[in-house]
Amino acid sequence: MTNPPEHIICSWSGGKDSCFALMTAVKQGHKPVALLNVLNENGQISRSHGLPPSILEQQAAVLGLPVLLQPASWQDYETHFVESLRQLKTAHQATAAVFGDIDLQPHRDWEEKVCATAGLKALLPLWQEERKVLVYRMLEQGLKCMIVSCNDTLGAGFLGRQMDDVLIADLEAAGVDVCGENGEFHTLVTDCPLFSTPLQVPPAEKVQHENYHFLQWKMD
């Protein structure tokens, strides 16, 4: 690589995009030093994906990285995010943060803003990749994931399904972006080349909150 390697914090959702962004950044020569995940205000589950801390901590353990799980409401999300970046920057001598966004410019603008405030570079290694090609690259490079939350267009029947050729075809047939970049669904990575062992996924039940469906994980 032409630029010197960065010591990176990964904005870690537990899903495929943040994981593949981390995998790509590592291939580019960067060194991961920590993960950051924002939980809901009571600290019981992660935002959007609905993952309990125990699953996120298990992912961090098989990645061999420390994880900062930061509770926050939507109102103080940005403040807590910047504070968390600063904390991890100091603790781990981080120089950059990596994000898994693909082509939503407002997301990139926000990530660059919070990183600048925290004195870090923002890295988006998946930026402007073609979405369907990107999903197939994830599968080809050994990333395994399952749907853990989705909208009513997909419905509860998609929860727990593993990402593969059949699921990609079914998402397209339902008129849903295969990356879920617009929030149609979210995933949990259960294995990838950076994991020392596959994730041990605990039992879960299907629940609905308004027009969104989730796997609700049994809490430790």
Q: What are its keywords?
A:
Rossmann fold; 220 residues; Rossmann-like_a/b/a_fold; Diphthine--ammonia ligase; 9 strands; Diphthami_syn_dom; alpha/beta; DPH6/MJ0570; 5-stranded parallel sheet; 33% helix; ligase
Beta percentage is 15-25%
Radius of gyration: 16 Å
Unreliable residue runs: none
- Let me know the average pLDDT: 94
The CA-CA distance between the termini, in Å, is 43 Å
- Main-sheet strand order equals 3-2-1-4-5
CATH architecture field of the largest domain? 3-Layer(aba) Sandwich
Order of helices and strands: EHEHEHEHEHEHEEE
The number of E-state strands comes to 9
The CATH class designation of the largest domain is: Alpha Beta
Count of discrete domains: 2
SS-based structural class? alpha/beta
Outline the structure in words:
With 220 residues, this protein is α/β, with parallel strands linked by helices. It has two domains: 7-123, HUPs (Rossmann fold, 3-Layer(aba) Sandwich), CATH 3.40.50.620; 131-217, Alpha-Beta Complex (putative n-type atp pyrophosphatase, domain 2). It is built from six helices and nine strands; from the N terminus they run E-H-E-H-E-H-E-H-E-H-E-H-E-E-E. It has a five-stranded parallel beta sheet, with helices on both faces. A four-stranded antiparallel beta sheet has the order 7-6-9-8, with no helix packed on it. Strand 8 and strand 9 (212-217) form a beta hairpin. Helix 3 packs across helix 4. The radius of gyration is 16 Å and the shape is globular. The protein starts with 6 loop residues before the first strand and ends with a strand. The mean pLDDT is 94.
